[in-house]
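Methods, example record. To illustrate the input and output format used throughout this study, we show the complete record for Nuclear transport factor 2 family protein. The sequence lines were provided to the predictor; the line carrying structure tokens was produced by it.
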Amino acid sequence: MTLDELLAREAIRDLMARYTTAGDRLRVDDFVACFTQDAVIESERVPPDRLFRYEGRPAIRAWQERWRRGEGGTHGATFVRHHLSTSRIELEGADGARAWTYWVAWTDIGPDHAGTYLDTLRRAEGTWLIAHRRVRLDWEAPNSLFRSAVANSGRGAEPGH
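The corresponding predicted structure is encoded as:
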């Protein structure tokens, strides 16, 4: 492995940490800055009423602003902390990568829900960003405080979202 490859991997790990902390703290500007202009974020392995897909920074920003405003009684948690664990990063040339990262979200009830981030990443102007993130739900607690959160925050069903 070359020094450039090591630096790319560390920059991608930093990106993942910035995404997680910004999302947990509802820092919308910091969250949106983790994505390319044409990025897609979408859910996978969830019931139809909880599917979401947002395309482009403006749609991702609008979704996060709804979370911050708590529209629709988004969830019942007083805090959320996503913990990242195993992450596999495969570099695809100097400016592309794919990553698979396990995560678990903790809330007031303890482990609330867990899954895998399936990412396509791109270096744009020297910075690694998320170009496409699939948020795969692998498990959720029967009393998950986030069970209705996605549906209540707007699912991105309208075109362009």
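Annotations derived from this record:
The first helix runs from residue 3 to 24.
The CA atoms of residues 32 and 61 lie 6 Å apart.
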